[in-house]
Amino acid sequence: MNPQQSTKSKTQSEAKPLTMAAALNRAMRDALTENENVVIFGEDVGPLGGVFRITDGLNRDFGENRVWDSPLAESGIIGTAIGMAMYGLRPVVEMQFDAFSYPAFEQIVSHVAKAHNRTRGAVRLPMVIRIPTSGGIGGVEHHSDSSEAYWTHTPGLTVVTPSNPTDAYSMLLESIRSDDPIIFLEPKSHYWTKEPEATELEELPMNKARVVREGDDVTLISYGPTVALALKTAELGAAEGLSVEVIDLRSLSPFDDETVGASVRKTHRAAVLHEAAQFGGYGAEVAARVTEREFYHLASPILRITGADIPFPAPLLEKFYLPNPERILTALNSWNWED
Amino acid sequence: MNPQQSTKSKTQSEAKPLTMAAALNRAMRDALTENENVVIFGEDVGPLGGVFRITDGLNRDFGENRVWDSPLAESGIIGTAIGMAMYGLRPVVEMQFDAFSYPAFEQIVSHVAKAHNRTRGAVRLPMVIRIPTSGGIGGVEHHSDSSEAYWTHTPGLTVVTPSNPTDAYSMLLESIRSDDPIIFLEPKSHYWTKEPEATELEELPMNKARVVREGDDVTLISYGPTVALALKTAELGAAEGLSVEVIDLRSLSPFDDETVGASVRKTHRAAVLHEAAQFGGYGAEVAARVTEREFYHLASPILRITGADIPFPAPLLEKFYLPNPERILTALNSWNWED
Amino acid sequence: MSTILATPLPIELPDVEPLRLIGDTGKAVPAKQRHGFEIPELATLLGIYRSMVVARRWDTQVTALTRQGRLSTYPSARGQEASEIGTVSAMSPSDWLFPTYRDSIAVLTRGVPTAEILTGFRGDWHCGWNPHEHATAPQATPLATQVLHAVGFATAAKLKNDPIATVAFIGDGATSEGDAHEGFNFAGVWQAPTVFVIQNNQFAISVPYSKQTRARMLADRAIGYGIPGFHVDGNDAAAVYAVVTAALDRARRGDGPTIIECLTYRVEPHTNSDDPSRYRDASEVEKWRAKDPIERLERYLVSEGALNQSVRDEISEAAEATAKAMREALNQEPKLDPMELFENVYVTKRASLQAQQAALQTELDLDGDSKK
Amino acid sequence: MSTILATPLPIELPDVEPLRLIGDTGKAVPAKQRHGFEIPELATLLGIYRSMVVARRWDTQVTALTRQGRLSTYPSARGQEASEIGTVSAMSPSDWLFPTYRDSIAVLTRGVPTAEILTGFRGDWHCGWNPHEHATAPQATPLATQVLHAVGFATAAKLKNDPIATVAFIGDGATSEGDAHEGFNFAGVWQAPTVFVIQNNQFAISVPYSKQTRARMLADRAIGYGIPGFHVDGNDAAAVYAVVTAALDRARRGDGPTIIECLTYRVEPHTNSDDPSRYRDASEVEKWRAKDPIERLERYLVSEGALNQSVRDEISEAAEATAKAMREALNQEPKLDPMELFENVYVTKRASLQAQQAALQTELDLDGDSKK
Ligand SMILES: Cc1ncc(C[n+]2csc(CCOP(=O)(O)OP(=O)(O)O)c2C)c(N)n1
Ligand SMILES: Cc1ncc(C[n+]2csc(CCOP(=O)(O)OP(=O)(O)O)c2C)c(N)n1
Ligand SMILES: [Mg+2]
Ligand SMILES: [Mg+2]
Questions:
Q1: A129 & A38 share domain
Q2: Of A143, A190, A268, A297, which is the active-site residue?
Q3: Does residue C371 have a pLDDT over 90?
């Protein structure tokens, strides 16, 4: 069966998942069903269903040869996944948290990202590296990192992150079907957020950003865990008479210059939100590239509203670190709005 | 003997080194002499003196207990250096090339960067991680990476890089004396560049940027291997009537906002140069932060003139990848100079 | 001699039972099965027993309060007291311990105050104690990384002719990480005075030993590093204490590192958020609960006449006092100072961080004002 | 049985000589010292000998041209021909090889054309051949990483009931890396059909075995993964071939992985830019040059009457032809297309990369114009 034949929307509409966790689970289930080369392995992804239960039931339903627990070694997981992908399988592996992908850094940066280029296109590595990312759940040290800047700076990697169940489903399925290796960042604080009943998001390829709320005064550029934050800020802003356009980037690499550029040319102002530290963070790329392209349309510098340049705090202190709507609005008010 | 008592300038003037390699060697020699807690280890840094011979003679002169070859494992080198630094030693370790520091990524990001913060200042890790960085020497795959963006995005790390022998000496000595862990990037293409006889650079703390050439029309922000490139471009520019100010950042983290800001407020235009890929590269931070601070002084967007968003090319193709003076001048000419 | 190891291994190596000095039922193992080790003196064992009882009570209390949501997370070491306490009881105060998240009771036994241990699990800061004050490193979360720290620390001490040793705890799962290997190997080459105590509790979260490695036993790893390896009954505090003591002596004598595998079992869930019903039978857990290390040592002490009612009472009281202190520590509101977030990122102050700190202070001040 | 491994190891394990089937002087080792292995048939050995001679000539030629600066770098495998060729001669064409930078002669013997091997060392592209065409992965530079790829590939084949095996070469130094450990361990648990061939040439650039590990031998590592380990004379092509063949059979039978340590020596510098006088005695090198693996096999074949002058002549001619082809390949100007730099970074085309590609094209066009 040709995986491309099954249409995403059909599979999805059959049973619309309510939480992002359920959506991700369904995407893997559908991928396992549609393509016998899809395999899933990693730490605790088998009978336990992963520490977040995202692979719940898959080991039971597809068996040990399709979904299994590996020994506890991240470089080992990525390295063996590379070999499997070279063979022709489509491994979907889980790093338990961002910080626990670091032991696999060399395999990801020196091999996953480079094998296709190294071999002039002869070796493809169709693999997905799922990483529950970011904070907001009061995790102890090493459980709340945001690692996107490391991956997005690495040529050869594609980095995407959904912010809602609909996207989680379609983007994960698209990632598994992709012939490129994909870093798939799952905002863990939103695993259990339910899709508002009313939402009927349009299907969109994963390399496109989405305008999730229209506005005129300022463009808030967000992704993964900060999309909900941006929307909340927009609500508050509206109450104060500020019309905020919210963009969900969805794909961090590649970056959708068109969608973002169009918005900024309309609003003339923009801010980018993320949880990671600011210095050299992903927001730097967003600010730099949008400024390069839209400088003469900008009324004020692009703001970065992000985590501070400190290690992610202990659980009881994370609220001081994470951007919040008030902080964002204060930052926006720092602009000279007379210009 | 208190290491802080010996003045840098004195030791240095005794025998001014000619190449950066010799300067670095002398800095380590002086550090080993002045402080018995300094130790040096890593792959091949003993009798061989390192693959670039930067530790030449140190094992012979200081013995196996001060300078020695470790087993071949980068995580092992960093991890054991952490333990030694906890004990009170000041390890100076070498990663043979940027790409071979990646196996140590977890130890660097999750421990080196975080131990002091984790323990509320109780545990200090005075260690220096030397990394020969960047391309330009026709190295085969994995021998020409520029890893600075990974380190500079990591709170807790200090990242510096010299561009000339004088700085190489003083900055390495200052790094070894520092109580913070330092990532010390050595532009390998300049190891054998000799200091022009005439140069008498002033001593400068390593956290300060240096204006290495004054100019009025544009600020070229460079560091490590791109400083010489920037200077060459400035020469060419001068011939065309373009007055280029060249800044050598020296410290990548922290960033010297004052020196760079002052220059940009004077020239109203800036470009940042580096070898690493552009997307999410260090130049993004430079462009973003300088724009944030100096937006109303900027006549045009800050340009990033960098490597392309591709893996570092094979030796015979690197010349197409590395920025060159013509490319830089062309880029500068892309600005609307009428503004 | 020219025998060769060039045949499949199962043929070469004999079956092995873990070393034990006191059997399941609390009886001393016959001398000829003790492989040269002696049962520690009663006074020593009584001290260990006392620490184990106190630790169990403390662990139980922490677990209960974690279930109530008072702590962010807590990985219990219930059932592993013989390994945990047997090990640290063999250490001298100046030897350094490199523990993991699992080893809170070992840290407690080292003398770190309750409140300082709970800091990390409650979430007011990452590490609550000053490692230099207690010769105890922060509890490592990134698996196996601490093994290398222990080797580096020990090597530094050796270079300085400082006669201390280090002990690194590591779990069975974590031995699969590259860092474990690098640590064992560096220690062998450098003859670092380090004792590696592998607590093989047979699970890494949900993953059983059989999916972790095909090694007969983890002690076998030692052979590949040219260092001694011991396979010890991890529920026999006497055996753990005796072997760790011998290994520490060896280390201090300059004879290098040792790997000690303590075979035990994690009777509790991995942490409070785990659900073991998904991956193991309750009956297996019950089997191991019956092999309780505290009961075993207690039976031995009783049979040797070393544990009378008044000692028992005293120990109970100490345990209750520790539990009470634990509850009280937790009842103290944590002192949270968001400004501290910026204080120790670097030793050398940074203007940019001070600016971020000031911005947060302004935000909090405004917030305070708006709430007035 | 309840023997125990609870004593320092040197007491437990016997001295071990590496397995050899043909001795230093070219004589067959007595049957009872062959540990169950048979000397391969003469026809097989003659084929191996032929490949070794060709490989030596090729390697010598490449080394010479590298000294002249015609290649960017070249790590010679001179003196390791028995390990390199003995191994790949045991493989079937559909088995996959995962080589390192050191193993060009193995890649050559697999049938990859000279020009395609030299691509990487000359520097026109990172890897010159299509791995799928030759069942040979790119030569790995990041040490030990390829071990995991070999395990993953083999596991995938096993999952698909595809009866192939994989072979990963790895150096003595690289066995210290975490990835080597993870690879051996994963292979054990998954019973991957992989053969790990450790070429212990006793140096990692300048670092001798004694600073790399305290293990008696690297084959001992196998014990800690519950898999078979063999310690083989890496200068005896017959032994290497026999043991690798047995291990591949085992793998294909579903009996899992094997570690084979080939004890040999790097007689050349690490690469052309190395200076061995800084770290080892020339006399040691001479000692090992005298143990030349080609001469040893030659003596055996001659003594068995399998190598007459006409065969020798034919082999010499083949070797010269290979060297000539090598020189010719290098005389071809490399085809360099800077536009290709952007073509295969992703399978899925990216607008941003196409823009960067176009910008470079414009720059080159302008440059071309300006030079007209
Ligand atoms: C590098 C890394 N990977 C993954 C994790 C997540 N994790 C925490 S504990 C654990 C299981 C560890 O098992 P084991 O080593 O046997 O120790 P135990 O918990 O049984 O004491 C895992 C996978 C981690 N902390 N660090
Ligand atoms: C991860 C990594 N670290 C360091 C290097 C640099 N390096 C290349 S070869 C080498 C020595 C390898 O020795 P060994 O594994 O014994 O192989 P040999 O060269 O002797 O064949 C080193 C340190 C590398 N390529 N990769
Ligand atoms: Mg365990
Ligand atoms: Mg070697």
A1: yes
A2: A143
A3: no
Query: Within a 10 A sphere around the Cβ of A162, how many other Cβ atoms?
Result: 28
Question: Residue D270 catalytic?
Answer: yes
Ligand nearest to the CA of B98: 2
CA A154 to chain B, closest CA, distance in angstroms equals: 8
- Element containing residue B91 per DSSP (H, E): strand B90-94
Q: Does A43 sit in the ligand 1 pocket, CB within 6 Å?
A: yes
Same domain, A229 and A161: no
d(CA A159, CA B292): 26
Residue B220: inside a domain, yes or no?
A: yes
Superfamily of domain D31-336: Thiamin diphosphate (ThDP)-binding fold, Pyr/PP domains (3.40.50.970)
Residues A204 and A191: beta-carbon distance below 8 Å: no
Asked if the C-beta of D335 comes within 8 angstroms of chain A's C-beta atoms, the answer is no
Give the pLDDT confidence of D168-201 residue by residue, as tens digits: 999 999 999 999 999 999 999 999 999 999 999 9
Centroid of ligand 1 to alpha carbon of C170 (angstroms)? 9
Distance CA C2, CA D23 (A): 14
Compute, in angstroms, the gap from residue D261 CA to the centroid of ligand 4. Answer: 12
Q: Considering its fold, how many domains does chain A have in total? A: 2
* Residue A338 falls inside a structural domain: no
Output the pLDDT for position B199.
64
Q: What is the pLDDT of residue D12?
A: 46
Q: Quick check: D141 and B140 CB within 8 A?
A: yes
CATH number for position A11: 3.40.50.970
Q: Which residues of B touch C178 (CB under 8 A)?
A: 73, 75, 103
For residue A117, give the nearest of B106, B152, B310 by CB distance: B310
**d(CA B224, nearest CA chain D) in Å:** 24
Instruction: Give the span between the Cα atoms of B259 and B163, in whole angstroms.
Output: 17
The question of whether B111 is a catalytic residue gets the answer no
pLDDT in tens, C218-269: 999 999 999 999 999 999 999 999 999 999 999 999 999 999 999 999 999 9
Q: How confident is the model at residue A198 (pLDDT cuts 50, 70, 90)?
A: low
Does residue A76 belong to the interface with chain D, where contact is any CB pair within 8 Å?
yes
Angle at A135 between CA A130 and CA A139, to 5 degrees: 100
Domain boundaries, chain D: 31-336, 337-372
Reported as type and span, the H/E element at residue D246 is: helix D237-252
Q: How far apart are CA B147 and CA A172, in angstroms?
A: 29
CATH number at residue A304: 3.40.50.920
The answer to whether A142 contacts C72, with C-beta atoms less than 8 Å apart, is: no
Give the number of the ligand closest to the Cα of residue B96.
2
Tally C-beta pairs within 8 A across B and D: 119
What confidence tens digit (pLDDT) does each residue in A57-91 have? 999 999 999 999 999 999 999 999 999 999 999 99
Determine the residue of D74, D104, D141, D143 to mutate for testing ligand 2's pocket, defined as the one with the most ligand atoms within 8 A of the Cβ atom.
D143
User: What is the per-residue pLDDT across B189-216, written as a single tens digit (0 to 9) for each?
Assistant: 999 988 766 567 888 999 999 999 999 9
Looking at residue B197, its pLDDT comes to 60
Report, as an integer, the average pLDDT of B255-271: 98
Query: Nearest residue of C to residue D18 by CA position?
Result: C4
Residues B146 and B213 placed together within one structural domain of the fold: no
Average pLDDT over residues B136-151: 97
Give the Å distances, CA to CA, from C315 to C51, C54, C311, C312. 9, 7, 6, 5
User: A301 is in which domain, residue-wise?
Assistant: 207-332
CA neighbor of C125 nearest in space, from B121, A193, D324? B121
Of D179, D206, D356, the CB nearest to B309: D356
For chain D, say whether B99 makes contact (Cβ under 8 Å). yes
Among the bound ligands, name the one nearest to the CA of residue B139: 2
Contact call for residues C293 and C262 (beta carbons, < 8 A): no
3-class SS of residue C205:
coil
Same domain, B286 and B170: no
Q: Chain D contacts of B334, Cβ < 8 Å?
A: none
